[in-house]
């Protein structure tokens, strides 16, 4: 589904140039759950941002199914993103002024889904995520685990082909973290492709494939047999 | 402690150079506007303040009967009679109305017209103690051939030398000896004067109010009580018992310092200011200053998040709240002082613009009363520091240190509400200014286009100086008519735009004809003025009887019920031969008055101005030829005015007001936009994360622009809802002072609202666009 070839990304400041991605090649199949690991500053978040069309690389190719995404203009990128991708962040990134329901509804609004349909979809996902009794609450009134459930719900409500998760358990204690990982696995089992950046090998063990980055290079790839078998 | 505060404050200001500059600049613009208007208002209120006795000196004005106008002149006999019976009157001084004329003064070959040589009582300088450079005030006006000169007039003829004892020739025949020279006072005065002579008449009888009478009362006399006593005492005077005409007289007093701004009498030779305009200007410049302060507060609070950590650390280290308040006020104080210095510079540079608009000569560097200005500015600056810095100091010092240090400084608290209120207030003021500007402009246009009732283009007016030339005018008229380009020639005493008027009361058929304005003219006056008869006919030299006829205007017909009298005899046995349309005589504030026109003759005033109509084809040539003819008749320098230009004087102050409001409105809008820009910038900064998240979720740039704009537009709409009724009340109140006024339409309000909305959208969008258009990842990096 995803074919990334020779991707390069350089950060420039006045004094130094930092190569964050240095000729990355990466393929992701539909329905896969891929973890990206590596030390701080290895470029894993940058890679995720580029995959999510949140950032632009200097060169390379990024094909999603058969569309070359790096050739799209800003508006097309934005359209493509909102139709095909969902995001889960380490710090949840919920909007404080909106209720749980409204937070989840937001991407549907931007996708111009009619109001009645929006209501149905949001209620469906709220039920699935087991946060029905929280739908009128504001983010600050929820625990971290609950907030991340809301964030996952928001990422899924548009039924994206690809979910990108940036350290989704980073701000959670282990029991809440496990809960979120199980949620992602469930999702993956229903056919959603997931790419996740993580520090934690425990979290990575939930995925089919683990890619290790260092200094902007892919240094190793490991197939997680337990999960891959399930996939096959 | 103070030195430390000062050091940190200066470093902080330097660190945030951009913000400090914006803050100081915004405030200095508001201050500069305020200082300029303050200077002007001080000037307008400084009339006659040089005279420390002025508050105890009053001018008498008189209503000769109920329902009549109040006149500023009174009979000569009044003051001596009153002084005899009223011990409160310490002294009095009068000047004679017929002595108020331009004179040709000559010293050998040095000839000059001097406009204001006043004929006064010899006691004049007891009331108005000018500083004598030469001569002695006490003995300077003892005889009829003495003349006292102002320093300026003296220098015109004698240079810097002492002229006392030297002689001057007045109007080519009367010899005067200079008896003194006085220094012009350093504050403006209600009467203009270039010199004084002894008045030329002891009195014209009780029935003739030909004098302007000033009473000097004992210090501390209660004015109200004295006016009552004055009127009661007057009624008991023997002359009042004899003369029935004096029975219904009512007298009023206006203190000398009040004459310029607050005198209410008609036919007043004093200079008149417009107290209403002074008040409006002070009010609006204060508003300008207040919104500049609001701006300052807004910018300070907007910066507060950056300062929160610093404040937290200070608190943890033991700073009390009062220490912090002192610190923040110090910081504000420094900025205010810098803003003041900048404002003084801007004001001094901008002063010529105001001077030109208001016809004054003011400058900060040569200001006549610097002490007063320093005190005023100190008070204003204290107020500004408290207003501009007070809330910020209070707000910044109230952070709880633990919360702040934990980074748990959340927005959406009281500060946001406060800032929104402040920005709304700015927009209320800006909208009021815009509406006011548009309505003033509408009114000025209306005034300019108002049908004055006569044709004022290519009409020239000049004075006839010799009585003989008036009496033999028909021959001179023949000669003037021969000049190519002159179409019609006549004479008049009060041409339109002249505020003076002869107002008469006559008995007719057992009834009373009161308050009839009377203008003395010559044949062909209506031809010159383009005022055709509506009924009957106008004066013509073909009818010998016309010198004893009368032409009235429509208002007179209406007021005195003359519909059936046209063609028959009316007051003074004069036949009403025709009716002309009403015309604007005194200005836009006064509706047309019932007016009669008579041809100069026995028992009329003199029509002492030539008024003539040119064809306008070759004005310069016509003027040259005219000058030649006229200087052969009267060998004086030829001075003339165009009627359209002199008539424009009746509304020139409103054109000035319009121009001033123009400046006010733009400056106010500029400050409001500055504030909006800062608040929008802050708002975007605060919501960067939210914007990033929304973009990740699919929001486009337009969605973000709409989101941020919405919150500001709500404020602007609320501000407009408040501003519109306020502006309506203010402007309809202002317009009610005009007899000729435009009607208030919905458009100024609609335009002002649209402009404020457009400005908001533009400013906020400009400020938001960068963030809204940035890659979402940049926004999320702020995490």
Automatic annotation (TrEMBL), chain A:
PANTHER family, alphabetized = ALPHA-D-RIBOSE 1-METHYLPHOSPHONATE 5-TRIPHOSPHATE SYNTHASE SUBUNIT PHNL, LIPOPROTEIN-RELEASING SYSTEM ATP-BINDING PROTEIN LOLD
Q: Where is the ABC transporter domain?
A: 2-232
Question: Record keywords: Transport included?
Answer: yes
The name under which this protein is listed is ABC transporter domain-containing protein
Please give the SUPFAM superfamilies that the UniProt record associates with this protein: P-loop containing nucleoside triphosphate hydrolases (SSF52540)
> Which key words tag this protein in UniProt?
ATP-binding, Nucleotide-binding, Transport
Give the transmembrane ranges.
none
Give the top-rank taxon of the lineage listed in the UniProt record for this protein. Answer: Eukaryota
The GO molecular function terms of this record are: ATP binding; ATP hydrolysis activity; transmembrane transporter activity
Q: What is the protein's species of origin?
A: Tuber aestivum
> What's a GO cellular component annotated to this UniProt protein?
membrane protein complex
What the record says about family reads: Belongs to the ABC transporter superfamily.
- In the UniProt record, does the keyword Nucleotide-binding occur? yes
Give coiled-coil spans as residue ranges: none
- InterPro entries attached to this UniProt entry: AAA+_ATPase (IPR003593), ABC_transporter-like_ATP-bd (IPR003439), ABC_transporter-like_CS (IPR017871), MacB-like_ATP-bd (IPR017911), P-loop_NTPase (IPR027417)
Automatic annotation (TrEMBL), chain B:
Q: Which GO terms describe its molecular function?
A: transmembrane transporter activity
Stored InterPro entries: ABC3_permease_C, MacB_PCD, Macrolide_Exporter_MacB
The entry's localization annotation reads:
Cell membrane
List the GO cellular component terms: plasma membrane
What domain of life does the native source organism fall in? Answer: Bacteria
| All residue ranges annotated as the MacB-like periplasmic core domain in the record | 20-232, 429-597
Q: Which UniProt keywords apply?
A: Cell membrane, Membrane, Transmembrane, Transmembrane helix
Q: Which PANTHER family does this UniProt record tie to the protein? A: ABC-TYPE MACROLIDE FAMILY EXPORT SYSTEM PERMEASE COMPONENT 2 (PTHR30572:SF18), MEMBRANE COMPONENT OF TRANSPORTER-RELATED (PTHR30572)
Put simply, this protein is called: Putative ABC transport system permease protein
């Amino acid at each position: 589904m995803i074919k990334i070839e020779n991707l390069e990304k350089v950060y420039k400041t006045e004094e130094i140039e930092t190569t964050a991605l240095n000729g990355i090649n990466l393929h992701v199949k539909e329905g896969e759950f891929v973890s990206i690991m590596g030390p701080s500053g290895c470029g894993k978040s940058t890679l995720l941002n580029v995959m999510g069309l949140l950032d632009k690389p200097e060169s390379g190719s990024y094909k999603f199914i058969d569309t070359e995404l790096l050739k799209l203009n800003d508006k097309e990128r934005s359209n493509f993103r909102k139709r095909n991708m969902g995001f889960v962040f380490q710090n949840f990134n919920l909007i404080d002024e909106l209720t749980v329901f409204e937070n989840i509804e937001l991407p549907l609004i931007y996708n111009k889904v009619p109001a009645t349909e929006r209501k149905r979809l949001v209620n469906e996902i709220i039920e699935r995520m087991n946060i029905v009794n929280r739908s009128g609450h504001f983010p600050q009134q929820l625990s971290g685990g609950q907030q991340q459930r809301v964030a996952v719900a928001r990422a899924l409500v548009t039924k994206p082909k690809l979910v990108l998760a940036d350290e989704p358990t980073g701000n959670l204690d282990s029991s809440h973290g496990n809960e979120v990982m199980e949620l992602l696995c469930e999702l993956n089992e229903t056919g959603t492709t997931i790419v996740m950046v993580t520090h934690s090998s425990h979290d990575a063990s939930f995925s089919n494939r683990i890619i290790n980055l260092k200094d902007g290079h892919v240094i190793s790839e490991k197939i997680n047999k337990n999960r891959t078998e399930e996939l096959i | 402690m103070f030195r430390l505060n000062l050091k940190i404050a200066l470093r902080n200001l330097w660190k945030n150079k951009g913000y400090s500059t914006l803050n100081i600049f915004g405030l200095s613009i508001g201050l500069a506007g305020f200082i300029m208007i303050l200077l002007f208002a001080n000037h307008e209120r400084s009339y006659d303040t040089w005279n420390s006795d002025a508050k105890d000196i009053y001018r008498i004005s008189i209503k000769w009967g109920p329902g009549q106008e109040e006149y500023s002149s009174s009979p000569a006999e009044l003051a001596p009679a009153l002084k005899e019976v009223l011990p409160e009157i310490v002294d009095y001084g009068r000047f004679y109305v017929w002595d108020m004329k331009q004179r040709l003064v000559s010293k050998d070959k040095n000839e000059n017209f001097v406009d204001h040589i006043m004929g006064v009582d010899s006691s004049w300088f007891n009331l108005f103690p000018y500083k004598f450079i030469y001569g002695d005030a006490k003995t300077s006006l003892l005889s009829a051939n003495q003349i006292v000169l102002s320093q300026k007039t003296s220098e015109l003829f004698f240079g810097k030398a002492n002229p006392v004892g030297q002689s001057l020739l007045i109007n080519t025949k009367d010899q005067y000896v200079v008896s003194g020279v006085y220094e012009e006072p350093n504050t403006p005065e209600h009467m203009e004067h270039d010199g004084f002579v002894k008045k030329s008449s002891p009195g014209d009888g009780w029935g003739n109010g030909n004098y302007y009478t000033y009473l000097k009362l004992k210090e501390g006399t209660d004015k109200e009580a004295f006016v009552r006593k004055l009127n009661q005492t007057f009624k008991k005077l023997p002359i009042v018992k004899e003369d029935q005409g004096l029975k219904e007289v009512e007298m009023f007093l206006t203190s000398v310092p009040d004459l310029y701004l607050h005198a209410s009498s008609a036919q007043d030779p004093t200079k008149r200011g417009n107290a209403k305009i002074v008040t409006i200007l002070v009010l609006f410049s204060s508003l300008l200053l207040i919104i500049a302060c609001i701006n300052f507060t807004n910018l300070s609070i907007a910066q507060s998040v950056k300062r929160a950590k610093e404040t937290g650390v200070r608190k943890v280290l033991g700073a009390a709240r009062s220490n912090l308040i002192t610190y923040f006020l110090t910081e504000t104080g420094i900025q205010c002082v810098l803003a003041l210095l900048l404002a003084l510079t801007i004001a001094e540079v901008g002063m010529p613009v105001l001077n030109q608009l208001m016809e004054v000569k003011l400058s900060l560097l040569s200001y006549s009363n610097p002490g007063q200005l320093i005190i005023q500015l100190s008070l204003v600056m204290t107020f500004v520091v408290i207003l501009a810095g007070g809330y910020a100091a209070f707000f910044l010092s109230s952070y709880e240190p633990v919360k702040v240090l934990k980074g748990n400084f959340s927005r959406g608290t009281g500060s946001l509400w406060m800032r929104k209120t402040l920005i709304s207030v700015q927009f209320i003021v800006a909208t009021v200014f815009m509406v006011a500007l548009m309505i003033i402009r509408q009114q000025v246009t209306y005034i300019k286009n108002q049908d004055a009732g006569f044709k004022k283009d290519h009409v020239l007016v000049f004075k006839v100086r010799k009585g003989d030339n008036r009496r033999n005018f028909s021959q001179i008229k023949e000669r003037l008519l021969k000049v190519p380009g002159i179409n019609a020639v006549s004479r008049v005493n009060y041409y339109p735009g002249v505020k003076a008027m002869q107002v008469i009361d006559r008995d007719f058929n057992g009834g009373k004809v009161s308050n009839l304005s009377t203008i003395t003219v010559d044949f062909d006056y209506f031809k010159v003025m383009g005022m055709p008869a509506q009924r009957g006919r106008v004066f013509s030299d073909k009818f010998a009887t016309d010198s004893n006829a009368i032409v009235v205007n429509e208002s007179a017909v209406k007021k005195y019920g003359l519909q059936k009298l046209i063609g028959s005899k009316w007051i003074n046995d004069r036949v009403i031969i025709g009716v002309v349309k009403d015309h604007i005589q005194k200005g836009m504030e006064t509706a047309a008055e019932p007016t009669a026109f008579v041809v100069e003759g026995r028992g009329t005033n003199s029509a002492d101005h030539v008024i003539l109509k040119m064809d306008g084809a070759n004005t310069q040539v016509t003027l040259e030829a005219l000058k030649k003819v006229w200087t052969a008749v009267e060998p004086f320098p030829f001075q003339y005015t165009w009627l359209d230009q002199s008539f424009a004087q009746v509304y020139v102050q409103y054109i000035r007001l319009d121009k001033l409001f123009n400046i006010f409105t733009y400056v106010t809008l500029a400050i409001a936009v500055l504030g909006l820009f800062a608040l929008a910038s802050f708002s975007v900064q605060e919501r960067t994360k939210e914007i990033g998240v929304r973009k990740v979720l699919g929001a486009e740039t337009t969605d973000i622009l709409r989101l941020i704009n919405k919150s500001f537009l709500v404020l602007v709409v609320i501000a407009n809802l408040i501003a519109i009724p306020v502006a309506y009340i203010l402007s309809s109140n202002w317009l009610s002072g005009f007899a000729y006024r435009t009607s208030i339409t919905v458009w100024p309000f609609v335009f002002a609202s649209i402009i404020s909305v457009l400005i908001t959208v533009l400013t906020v969008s400009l400020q938001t666009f960068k963030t809204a258009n940035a890659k979402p990842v940049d926004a999320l990096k702020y995490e």
